Amino acid sequence: MSKFTLKSFLRGLFIGTLTLGAGFSGQLFAQANGMQTGEAVFEVLASEIALQRGEAGLAYSTYMEMARQYKDPRLAQRAMEIGIAGGSPNLALQAAQEWDSLSPASQTKPKEVLITLLALSNRWPDTVKPAIALLSQQTPAQQENTLLQLQTLLGKAKDESEALRSFYAIASTVKVSPKDPGLLYTYAMSAEKVGRLDVMEKSLREILRKNPNDVNALNALGYSLADRNLKLSEAFALISKAHQLSPKDAFILDSLGWVNFRLGKNALALEQLQQAFNLSPQADIAAHEGEVLWAMNRKTEAEEIWRQGQKLDANNPTLQETLKRLKPDWTSSEQAKTGSWDGRFAVKVIGITDTQNQGGSGGFTLTQDQLKDILEIRNPMGGSIAKITITPGEATLERDGQVVTAVDADTLIQNTLGLPLPARGLSNWLRGEVRPGSEASVERNAKGQVSKIIQDGWSLAYSWGNNNRLEKLTMTRSSNIGSIDIRLVFDQANE
Question: Among 486, 459, 458, 483, which Cα is nearest to 472's?
Answer without folding.
Answer: 486
